[in-house]
Write a structure and sequence with these properties.
It contains 14 helices and no strands. The chain has 439 residues and is mainly alpha-helical.
Length: 439
């Protein structure tokens, strides 16, 4: 990241992340396909109602780990090994404690959230059965994301990728076994999720102790340092909030969709899983960009920052163009994978009505995302958070106004309006940054 060509640095770092994200989205999508095929549209709807709630929680932890990754990358670039070690210990202890408290809150409050979002009453018990198991294993989700982010912070994106691929394959196999063979229903799907996360977090931990001594903690290291705690909270809280803003938007938007019935709930949420697959590449490029910028700023190589941003934009836009065209052309066939056409015609129709307009708007989302990762790399998480929050507020307001009248497609159009707004804001902020720093 600190020397050599900018394109090769970002591309080689992002490639394992992109492929790892593909497998992550694959197992999330296959999860829905297995539930829909084996258990039917109602169980798919139950998991769909659970997904926005679960994603808010999981991506809050993921976002916090991303912020810690940027902090680790800056300290790694500066060569301060003592500060790096203190940060690793403090952030791990703080993160574990926070995750356990969050788990308790989720287990106690999930059913109230279902009532508040007006989820169909017939889905409540099945949705809670799924959520309770996944929330119980939340600590394993944090540990994997933490260790993976720490490894990426020191420039190692290949190992998290390998363990993500293994965990994804394991998840699919266990899902087929628990749901298809053992007849455990949605509980089997949740159990497969927890066990795969346990396996990936354990694998990362073993690797770190064997191959990355600067990240390994020993008996005398497990203590919280005030300086490191302040830095950890500063970097992680804004990154965590920014990371979940889009999922909070989907969670709130779910309140618009739930009254439309179980079939449209299932169709909309299945379509968002496909949407996530089309977005995975520029998210991988964005993580690479933020690490690239953080390391080079830490090392005092500010002249590489502008080139990094241009390279990341070009890479991400090339992928998105191809992916969006493919999804637009084959949207009905893609949606038919989730349910059989006879039993789920309304599910397929609702999904296609959301996917096709979203494909048109994805290029705008692409540019916005890369600029947000650019500011993450600079450590300006609050800027990203407030810009993203304003976009979500606008999206949710428009969705509540127009979904009752136009149905699921209104969510796509409302989202595009929010993306267009932050495009102008972020473009101005990027221009101001380069004008001020002259790099």
């Amino acid at each position: 990241m600190l020397t050599g060509g900018v394109f090769s640095s970002i591309f080689l770092f992002s490639l394992p992340i992109i492929i790892g994200n593909f497998f992550l989205q694959l197992y999330v999508t296959v999860d829905a396909i297995i539930v829909g095929r084996f258990l039917g549209p109602q169980s798919l709807a139950a998991v769909s109602v659970a997904s926005p709630i679960l994603f808010v929680v999981v991506f809050f932890l993921y976002g916090g780990c991303t912020g810690i990754s940027v902090l680790i990358a800056q300290e790694f670039g500066s060569g301060d090994k003592k500060s790096l070690h203190e940060t690793v210990a403090t952030s791990l202890l703080f993160g574990c404690g926070f995750t356990l408290a969050l788990t308790a809150a989720c287990l106690l409050g999930a059913r109230s959230v279902l009532v508040w979002t007006k989820a169909p009453l017939e889905l409540h018990d099945e949705t809670m059965a799924y959520l309770n198991i996944v929330f119980t294993g939340l600590i394993f989700s944090f540990l994997y994301n933490y260790f993976a982010s720490a490894l990426r912070g020191i420039g190692n994106s290949r190992v998290p990728f390998v363990f993500q691929v293994i965990a994804s394959c394991l998840h699919v196999a266990m899902n087929l076994f628990f749901v298809g063979q053992c007849g455990l229903g949605v509980r089997g799907s949740a159990l497969a999720t927890v066990l795969s996360q346990l396996a990936s977090s354990a694998a990362c931990l073993v690797y770190i102790y064997r191959r990355e001594p600067m990240l390994a903690l020993h008996r005398g290291d497990f203590r919280i340092t005030p300086r490191a705690l302040r830095a950890t909270i500063s970097y992680s809280w804004a990154a965590a909030l920014q990371s979940i803003i889009v999922y909070v938007g989907r969670f709130l938007t779910q309140g618009c969709v739930n009254p439309l019935g179980a079939a449209r709930v299932a169709g909309y949420n299945a379509a968002t899983r496909v949407e996530n697959v089309t977005m995975m590449a520029y998210e991988g490029v964005g993580v690479a960009l933020s690490t690239f910028i953080a390391q080079n700023l830490g090392a005092g190589h500010g002249e590489r920052v502008r080139s990094g941003l241009k390279t990341a934009l070009t890479m991400a836009m090339s992928y998105t163009t191809v992916a969006a065209l493919a999804v637009y052309a084959f949207a009905p066939q893609i949606m038919s994978m989730f349910v059989s056409s006879g039993a789920g015609g309304e599910v397929i129709s609702a999904g296609v009505s959301y996917l096709r307009p979203m494909c048109i708007y994805l290029m705008l989302s692409n540019v916005d995302a890369i600029m947000q990762y650019f500011f993450r790399g600079l450590g300006e998480f609050r800027t990203v958070m407030f810009v993203s929050l304003s976009q979500i507020v606008l999206r949710v307001i428009l969705s509540f106004l127009f979904v009752p009248r136009w149905g699921v497609p209104a969510i796509a159009h409302s989202t595009a309006v929010g993306w267009l707004m932050i495009f102008f804001v972020l473009s101005w902020l990027v221009h101001r940054h380069f004008k001020r720093t002259a790099c």
